Structure formats: structure tokens, C-alpha cells
Amino acid sequence: MSSNSSIDDNNGVFAFSPPLAQIIKFWLILFSEIFSMPCYLLLIYYFLANRTIRQALYNHVIISSLFIDFIIVSVDLSCHLGFLRLGYIIPSIPATCLIWQLVDYGFWYGDLFLKSWAAIERHIFIFHPNLLNTVSKRIFIHYCPLAFVTFYTPIVYIYLIFFYPAEHTYIYTILMCSGPYYYNGIPPWLIWYESLFHYVIPIFVLFIFSNTLFLRVILHKRRLRIANGWLQYRKMTIQLLFVSIIYLFDLPYIIVTIVRWSGYLNFGINVQGPYFYYVNYIPIILFPFAILVTYPKLLSKLYFRKKQQPIRSTFLEMTVRRSMYNEDGKPWLNGFLQYKPYVYAQRMLSRWNDKKLDLAVANNGTDSLHILLQSC
To answer: What pTM value is reported for the model?
Structure first.
């Protein structure tokens, strides 16, 4: 582990960080990445494989966020791990620096745009569904804004990082190779625009619209219960509430930034970069878990289905085995001699999926198999 240099920048990222703090950050990021990446892959597969969930309009922004956040976790945090462990960037080539800067800025700001748009769009889904009742309305009100918030910041930062005419000085022993380099040439008003429009405003939009949505759902709870989509409305509200809660971790960084903009340039500089900068990744790490808890069926499949299936198969097999033989140990039906009892039962179950099998015990004390086929 190495310590960063004492170079000062606009957000204190290059401020000095003690070696012990870097070790702690390394292990925290490592464990967070180990637990969050499988959860991201599981949710992406679940959303894409389930046609009903995939086609639901209110899930489209969640799917886009899962892809964007997975790229941040797999690329951005992995680069941080290598830098914290070695003290320099590997592989030490310009492409690594530029890709890291693109993900850290373009995709990270894109994630904030997606979350803020999700907070706005849920008001439309719940209280103004008539705005999406035609194809043309869905294109202009749902698909076009979703495409904009998904690709706006990645496209902007592809230009700023790869094509903007600025001098690139790659220092591999500094975070993100001392970049991004467009800061050396852009006018001051563009820096303010980036900080306000790409970071501060989306966070406040997320908080304001998520809280107002929660209050509106509480106030109109009786009317919404009468509607057919109450379960969907409740799920959308809970999802947004969880997401807004985890993004509270961004507030310390925002508060220090606003105070420094007010003229106190050295306020919080020793904690903003070394600590608050990494706290901003907590919402990205917790996001898949906040979505996962709103799908109890998926959780039940993960934790209970595999445990219950062997028990049901064993019980069925044992019951059929006992029911196929009489007290003398001989089969009571010659037609079953060519099959093993459990094989026959499995074939019966697969042939009549819409039928019921009733396994009973005869009243005379001998075991027998009564198969009662009834139409469902």
C-alpha cells in the first residue's frame, strides 16, 4: 500500500491518506465487490429471463441502472483495489487511465441521472398512467427520456476524456493517473455546470421526488387500493424509498463541496478525498440488495426451493415403493414389474401435469396405491 501525494485539487481526492486507512479501504472494497457482483449478475439474469418483468415499463430504468452500476463495480472498484494494494495503476498504460476516468465520471454520473429519473417517472406510473396509454406517448414520455439519462453522460465524457484538446500527463502513482485532463482546458463555468447539473441536482431530485412520492402514496392509499395495480404501486414506492435511503451516503461529500464553494477552500479537504470520496460508492454496492429485497419470490427460490425439492422426491419415492408391494413383499400389480416404482410415478406425473395424485393407505391395514385422477 502506498499513500497518495499531497497534491490539492477541486475535491480533495489527492489529499494525503494514511497507509492504515488505505489498507482498511482496500479490504472493505474487496469484500463489498465480492458480495455485490454476484447479486448484480443474479438480478440482471432474473430481469432479462422473465418476460413479464422485462416488459414492465417501470422495470426498464432498474435494468439500465443494473448494467451501469455493474460496470462501475467491476471496472471502477477493481481499479481502486489495484491502486490501493500496489500504490500505482496496473497495467500502467494510457488506455487504463482513460477507461478508468470514463467509468468514474461518465458512468457514475449516469447512474445518478437514472436514479433521479426513476424518482420522477414513478409519479407518472402511479398517478398519471394516462400519459402512457398509447405507443406515441410511451415513446416520448418513457423511452426517449430513459435513453437520454442512460447515454447522456457516457457520451459527454467520451468526448471530454478521449477527444477534448487538452494535455495528457499520465502519472501512474496518482489516482486515475492525475486525471481527468479536460479540467486543464475547460472554462470555469463548465466546471460549475458539471458539479451542479451532473451531481448535486440529481441527488436532490432523487430525495425530493422519492419523499413526495411516499407521502402521496400514503395520502391516496385508499384510492390506490381500489385500483388494479396496487401491488405494483407499493413495490415501486418501496424500491424508490430504499434507493433514496442508500443515497444518503452521498450527502457528506455534497455538504463539504458546497461549503468549499462558499469560500472556505480548505474546509474538510483532509476527509473529503481520502474518506468521503469512497463513501460515495456505498450506494452502488447496496443498490442490488435494495432491489433484491423487493422480490420475495426470487428470495424464496434461492433459499427454499433447493432445500424442499429433495424432501418431496424422497417422500414420494418412499410412499410409492411401500404402496407397490403387499405384506408378503410381492408386487400386487404385474404390470409394474418392468418398471421401478419411482420411475413409474415420475412418468405418471410428467404425463398428467394437470391431474392430482392422491397417495392413501387402505383401511384394512395393508398399504396400497390409490391414484385418483381429477380434473383441476
So the answer is: 0.75
